[in-house]
Amino acid sequence: MNIKAPRGTNDILPPFSLKWQYIEKTAREIFDLYNYQEIRIPIFEYTELFQRGIGELTDIVEKEMYTFEDKSGRSITLRPEGTASVLRSFLENKIYGKAQPTKYYYMGPMFRYERPQSGRYRQFNQIGVEVFGTDDPSVDVEVISMGMHLMKALGLEELELYINSIACPECRQQYEKILKDYLNENREELCDDCKRRIDTNPLRVLDCKNKSCQGIIHNAPVITDYLCDNCQKHFDKVKKYLDLLEIDYTIDPTLVRGLDYYTNTAFEIKYSGLGAQDTIFGGGRYNGLAEEIGNKSVAGIGFAIGLERLLMTMEEQGVEFPLDSSPDLYITTIGEKAREESFVMLDNLRKAGLKAAIDYNNRSVKGQMKAADRLNANYTVIIGDNELEQGFATIRNMKSGEEKEIELADLIEEMQKLI
Ligand code: HAM
Fold first, then answer.
1. Fewer CB within 10 Å, N side or C side of the chain?
2. Options 3.30.530.20, 3.20.20.140, 3.40.50.800, 3.30.565.10; which CATH number does 329-418 get?
C-alpha cells in the first residue's frame, strides 16, 4: 500500500527547509530588537477555548476545526490559530500580575479543514506576535511596523498595508443595525451565504468574495462613519503614528477579518502577485478576548504571518536566500587505515566547529570527489597510506583549484585559517 501525506499538508524537505530556518531566524532577530520573547503553546487545546475565543459564527469554528474526543471524552481541537492559546496561557499563568506590557512571539503549525488550493492548506505554519496589557495606539503601529520591518529584512517589496477600525462592541452594535437594514433592503442580490449572515453576523458579509455581492458591499454604509469618540480617537492616533513612521496604507472599510475577537484596529498586508490567497499576514486589536475566555480585562493586539504564503511571495519576487549548507571540508580517503584515521580527524574537525564530511559508501577516489562536488564542499583533502606515513596532505580549494601542502597534525588549525 502506498501511503501518502494527508490532503492539504506539505513535507518541507531540504534544501527548502533551510529557507524556512532562514525566515525563522530573521524573525527571531527582528522580534528581539522590539523586546518580544518566544512563547511555546500546545498544539491542541480544549475546544471551548476556540468556540468562545474565535466565535461560534466564524467559518473556522463552524466548519474548519479538527475536533475530536480524547480517551476521557473531553473535546479537543488542534489549534486553528495561536492568539486564543497565547492569551489563555497569559491568563492561566497570571502573567498579568507582572509589569506590563507583555510581548510574545510564536512559530508553528496551525490546522484548518479548508479546501486546499495554492496558498491555502489544512496544516499551515504561522509566525505570530501578541502584545498584552496596553491599549496605546502607538503599540498598534509598533506591531505593524515590526511586521513590515521583517518583510523588508527578508527582501520583500510591493506589499500593501490595509487598515480599518472595527470599533468597540458599543459602536459596532449601532453600525451593525444600520448595515443589517441596508443588507435587508438589498437581500435579493446577495448570495445564499450572505443572506444567512445578515442575521447571524452581518459584518462577515463585507468579507464575501462572491462577485455578485461586490456591488452591494461597495455601496454599503462604512463602519468608520459610526465610530464613537474613543474609537475615532484611537483610529486617528493609529493613522498619525503610521504617518510619523512614513508607512503607506490604504483604509479599507470592508476589512473585517475572519475571526470575531477584533476591536478597533484591524490590518492586513497583501501582495497582489499571490492570486486569490493574497494576504501574507493579518492581525489587529482584541481588547474583549480576555474577558471572553478568562473573565479578565486585558488589552491585546497582534498579527500572524502565513509562512507558506510568505515563502511563495519571496520565490515570486526572486528574493535570494543567503543559504550555505556546504561543508567546509570533505575528506577523501584511500584504504582502510586512512579511513580509520580520517574518521577520528572528522570527529576532531567537527568538535573544533568545522563542518566536515566523509564518504560512507566505499566509493572510489573519483566517486568521493564527485560526492564532494555534489555537496559543494569548499575544500577537499585526500588521505591515503602515503599521506599518513609522511604526515602531510594536500588541501584543495574546490572553487579556485588552488592546492596547499600541510602537515596533517595542523589540519584543524589550517582549516580554521582558511574558512
Ligand atoms: P488569520 O488571518 O486567520 O489570523 O491568519 C493569519 C495568516 O495565516 C493569514 O494571513 C495567512 O497568511 C495564514 N493562513 C491562514 N489560513 C491559512 C491556510 N489555510 N493556509 C495557509 N495559510 C493560512 C490569525 O490567525 C490571527 N490569530 C492573527 C492575529 C494574531 N490576530 C491578532 N493576533
1. N
2. 3.40.50.800
